[in-house]
Amino acid sequence: MEQSVPYTVASLSADLRALGLAAGDVVLLHSAYRRVGFVVGGVEALVRAVCGVLGPTGTLVVPTHTPDNTDPAGWRNPPVPPAWWPVIREQMPGFDPRTTPSRWMGVVAEAVRTWPGAVRSDHPQVSFAAWGRRAAEVTGGHRLDDALGEGSPVGAVYRMDGRVLLLGCGYDSNTSLHLAEYRRPSPPRETTGSSVRTPDGAHRWVEWTDVAVDERDFPQLGADFEATGAVRVGPVGGATARLMSQRRLVDFATDWLVRHRH
E-assigned strands of the chain? Predict the structure, then answer.
């Protein structure tokens, strides 16, 4: 359907409040901005709308992952020749939370990453940026070997009883479901690596072992969770948005994975 009127900060704010987002919320946002439609002021207007609804006591969290800063031996889309692997590991710029752009996370996440007052965790593969009252608490202490687990920003949102907002995207983008993977009994693990920035401004390749994650069944998991009635669904601009309790989602997913994954 053709868009009849342009969306604005005011109209997007009204949509978000009607969906249930409220002042003081801690919310982890995943978004596909192209689904929203024409917005007066573009991405900036959308971020202003979300921050305005959350207010000075709220906290906005977004994924600012850098999947290109991973071991090239595991690249599949596209793969690179094995002869390139040592060069990539040696020459990849070290991750710097202040300057390294996210990749494939969308323009909204990039806007929040560079928003005045935003801070970012220092994981070289799966960092998160946050703005608001509890931003430093969300992003602090992000260990290499606990990328999406209890001590990660995802785990921090869980402890804060935060919410997840899917804006124009599906459950395959819902990073919080990975926390449930970490809670499985004896989850599979894998060794990975990244280039990190050293205090003297140089870089070095580091490796560590962490839980191996797999989002292939997340769409079905999300559909089953939604069937419980725990998700508020509504329009934000031209996009379909889904708002849910992250704690309720993760608890459901933890049980679901035990029953459905082998």
Answer: 26-31, 59-63, 119-120, 128-132, 163-167, 189-197, 203-211, 232-236, 239-245
Any bridge partners for residue 7, and if so which?
Answer: 39
Residue with tokens 């004896």: 186
Chain centroid, CA 13 distance in Å? 21
Amino acid (1-letter code) at residue 56: P
- Identify whether 78 is preceded by a cis peptide bond (ω within 30 of 0): yes
Does residue 42 surpass a pLDDT of 80?
A: yes
Does the predicted model carry a pTM greater than 0.90? yes
Which residues lie across from 197 on neighbouring strands? 203
Please list, residue by residue across 139-164, b when 16 or more beta carbons sit within 10 angstroms of its beta carbon and e when fewer do. beebebebbbbebbbbbbbbebebbb
Strand order in the sheet with 59-63: 119-120, 128-132, 59-63, 26-31, 163-167, 239-245, 232-236
So where are the chain's domains?
9-260
